[in-house]
Amino acid sequence: MANELRPCPCGIGDRFDYEGCGQEVQVEHIKVYVCKPASTDKAVIVIHDIFGWQLPNTRYMADMLAANGYIAICPDFFAGKEPWKLSDDWSKFDDWLKTRDARKINKEADAVLKYLKDQCGAKKLGVIGFCWGGVAVHHLMMTYPELKAGVSLYGLIKDSDDISNLLNPTFFIFAEKDDFIPLHQVTLLEQKLKKNCKVDYEVKIYPGQTHGFVHRKREDINPQDKPYIEEGRKDMINWLNKYV
After folding, report:
1. CA-only gyration radius of the chain, Å
2. Check whether domain 20-243 has CATH 3.40.50.1820, yes or no
3. Is the full-model pTM beyond 0.85?
4. Is residue 211 annotated as part of the catalytic site, yes or no?
5. 35, 131, 138, 139: which one is catalytic?
């Protein structure tokens, strides 16, 4: 996502050299990447950032969830539209983003939920999302009561946003040095949640970290960030384990 005054920060960080353990399948009108453990009735929807559902980093996170006992599914929430590329013209980013609204994904979400229930035997459902996907998590957690837990990783919050009407427990991960999500917006979110939210929630700021640190940084070449990368991933999985 992008702050109103700045281009999207998702280009920072590293692109993982990762093939993925799952497979691509067609689910109604969209393609999805899915990775399944041997046997489970728990599933997590993984929502990509602006670089789309085929980004190796996002598939790495999906496979990590599968290794922790979840059916992990990463759908193409752009529904066939091109993801953003680093070579694209940033001056056109806002126009590009208008055609990919993270709050208008119900058709895709409906298809994925039906697939998980009917084809995968999933009975316990959660959702996580990164950046653009973090905003999508906000929307879904206020819309779909069957999603028993959500984790939003550095999803943009505007001062005017009120996402305190959550239906189920939601965990918000932010980076202290994220120039694109000012800490005053995080503080305002906490105030609104404390006043209005009727379900469990947590807001956590990871010191010294920048936007995208959980899925866009390789711990092997960012040793100073490794403890926080690992902590963010562990916190995410612990939240899912607690509520899904």
Report:
1. 17
2. yes
3. yes
4. yes
5. 131
